[in-house]
Design a protein that fits this description.
The protein is of the alpha+beta class and 230 residues long. The protein has two domains: 70 residues; 154 residues, Protein Transport Mog1p, Chain A (3-Layer(aba) Sandwich). The chain has six helices and eleven strands. The longest helix is centred in the N-terminal third of the chain and has 49 residues. It is elongated, with a radius of gyration of 33 Å. 24% of the residues are buried.
């Protein structure tokens, strides 16, 4: 852009060459002067835009870092490797065989989360899935908003099942069961960072609770400060 404007100005100045200046030449000279001033103004505006863009990028980066710290409860948190979480999943459950296990780490906009899960089934029907999630940098505001039940106490019951907050092995949890479908759910909050979820289908709630006991919750608790920096 700057080169083009300078070229136009130079062209205008060359066009004014000659000894005597006619009215036409004077008009051209004035037009060239105005073009030069306009080119300077545009160059200054472009420079200000570049500086503004750099400042905006820096502000966005700072805002993202502040948001990450806010979501992590004022701390930067690198989640535990999903491979470590995967090792904490049982090889089998009473009367059930593990049919699959996997893990992953996801990162977006500076927010990191890792999880591992495994599925178990029995020949006569019924499945249970166990998932362990490290909310990592989402363990602050977002995590607590998503698991607001951990800050409350309630119990609901109907002819087809129930839902209630409870304490499981010393940790805050929420328990749900639907009789008609044999669907049982248990979510356990560990160290305000890890979530253990046990989801059963075609099973009794006792089997869901028994499956949850196969996970070393205290070991998860011991990892609550892992990867954390102020």
């Amino acid at each position: 852009m700057k080169r083009l404007l300078c070229g136009l100005v130079a062209f205008g100045l060359i066009a004014m060459g000659g000894c005597g200046k006619s009215d036409r030449e004077k008009q051209m000279e004035e037009a060239a002067r105005k073009m030069e001033e306009k080119a300077k103004d545009m160059a200054e505006a472009a420079s200000e835009m570049e500086e503004s863009a750099e400042e905006s990028a820096e502000e966005m980066k700072k805002a993202a870092e502040e948001m990450q710290e806010a979501l992590g409860g004022g701390k930067k948190v690198e989640p535990v490797s999903f491979r470590v979480l995967k090792e904490m999943l049982p090889e089998e459950l009473p009367g059930m065989t593990r049919t699959g296990a996997s893990g992953e780490k996801t990162a977006a906009f500076g927010l990191n989360v890792s999880e591992a899960h495994a599925t178990y089934s029995r020949e006569e029907g019924g499945t249970i899935e166990i998932k362990i999630t490290d909310m990592g940098s989402m363990s602050g505001l977002v995590g607590m908003a998503h698991f607001a039940w951990a800050q409350s106490e309630f119990e609901r019951e109907s002819e087809d099942g129930y839902e209630k907050t409870t304490t499981f092995e010393g940790y805050k949890a929420i328990e749900k069961y639907t009789i008609s479908s044999g669907k049982g759910e248990l979510q356990i909050l560990i160290g305000k960072r890890f979530i253990v979820e046990v989801d059963g289908r075609g099973v009794e709630m006792d089997q869901v609770l028994e499956a949850a006991r196969t996970v070393d919750l205290d070991k998860l608790e011991s990892l609550k400060d892992s990867g954390t920096t102020s």
